[in-house]
Amino acid sequence: MKLLIITQVVDSEHPVLGFFHRWIEEFSKYYEQVHVICLQEGQHSLPSNVTVHSLGKEASARKLTYIWRFYRYCWKLRNSYDHVFVHMNQVYVILGGLLWHWQKKQIGLWYMHGKTSFSLKVAEILVDKVFTGSIESFRISSHKVLVTGHGIDTELFVPYAVDKEIDLITVGRIAPIKNLEKQIDVLEEVRKTYPATLTVVGVALTAVEKHYFERLGTYIKQKKLTPHVHFIGKVSQKNLPQLLNRARVFIHTAKNGSLDKAVLEAMSCGVAVVSTSDSLFDTPVGEVAADTTNIADRVTHLLTSKVTYDSVKSHEYVLNNHSLRALIPKIVRHLNLR
C-alpha cells in the first residue's frame, strides 16, 4: 500500500510542527511508499521510501501557486498512493476530496482542536475517517470519528533524574488562544507565598502573535514580574524533554478546549501538570482548575509539598494511552478498511 500525507510543514527543527517529522517516519514503516505534500519544507532526514513535495512557502510562493502545485502533485502522483492522510488542515480535504473520491482513494483527517468551523463540517462529509486524540478535540457528532490517543513520542519524552531548577514551565505558540495572561496572574498569586518563576518555551510566528507578545510583555511589566518570567524562545523536539525534566510544574491555560500535545509531553516526562482544560478530567494524572486562585493554590501545593510526584505513573499513562508507536498502526489499520 502507498500513502499520500498532506501537512503544513516538514521540518524537524520547526518550533511548533517539528514533531510531525517523527509521524512521517512511523508511517513509512507501514507503507511501501510515502509521498508528503507540505506547504513549507525545511530540515528533514526521512527514510528512503519517503518523498517530500513542497508547495513553496519557504520560497515565498503566492497562494495561487500553492493551489496549482497542490493539484499538480495530486494528479501527477495519482498512481503512487492508495490512502490520503491530511494532518489538521481541513482545507486540503475540501480542495482535494472530490478528486480523491473519483480516484477511489481512502481519505483520513487528523484533527485536534475544540473549534468547529463550517469548513470542518464540509471536510467531515468528504472524508472516510476522522482521527482525533480525545473526545473533546473533534466536536462534530459523526460515525466516522475514531478517538485514537494523541501520538506522543514516548521514547523521546521520558522522565529521568535531573535537578529541578525550573519552578513553572509552559510550552507552545505565544498566541492569544494560549491565554498566557492567566499564567501571569497565577504567578503573581503564587509569589505571595512562594518565590516562583515561570519559563515560557515558544515563539510568536504570525503578525497577530507578535502583537500579542508585545502586549503580554507590557502586562508582565505592569505586574512587576519581568525578572520572574523567562522567555527562552524556540526549543527543538529533541531538546525539549531535557528542559521539561528540569521543571517542577507544567502550567496550561489554553482556550482551545482540546487535550494539548504539550501537556501530554510534559506528563510523559513525569512533570506535574495543572491545566484549565476539562479534557484532563479523564486522566488519572494532572490537575484541573478553572480560576486563578484555584490554579495558584494547586501550583503552590505542588511546589511546596514534600511528597514526591509519581513520574512513573505519569509516563505510563501517556505510554498506554497516547503513544505514537500505538497511534500510527491504528490509523493505518482503519485506512485499510473499505
How many distinct beta strands? Answer: 13
**How many H/I helices?**
11
Instruction: Please state how the strands of the largest beta sheet are arranged side by side.
Output: 3-2-1-4-5-6-7
As a percent range, the share of strand residues is: 15-25%
Distance between the termini: 13 Å
Morphology call: globular
Biggest sheet, open or closed, and with what strands and sense? 7 strands, parallel
Structural class: alpha/beta
Mean pLDDT: 92
The low-pLDDT segments are none
Order of helices and strands: EHEEHEHEHEEEHEHEHEHEEHHH
Characterize the quaternary organization of these chains.
Answer: single chain
* Fraction of helical residues: 25-40%
Q: Rg from C-alpha positions? A: 21 Å
Report on the architecture of this protein:
The chain is 36% helix and 20% strand. The mean pLDDT is 92. Helix 3 runs parallel beside helix 4 (118-126) and helix 8 crosses helix 10. The two termini are 13 Å apart. A seven-stranded parallel β-sheet has the order 3-2-1-4-5-6-7, with helices on both faces. Strands 10-9-8-11-12-13 form a six-stranded parallel β-sheet, sandwiched between helices. 43% of the residues are buried. The chain is of the alpha/beta class. The protein has eleven helices and 13 strands. The chain has helices at 20-28, 63-76, 91-102, 118-126, 180-190, 207-222, 240-245, 261-268, 292-304, 311-322, 324-335; strands spanning 2-10, 33-41, 50-54, 83-87, 106-110, 129-132, 145-147, 166-171, 198-201, 229-233, 247-252, 272-275, 287-288.
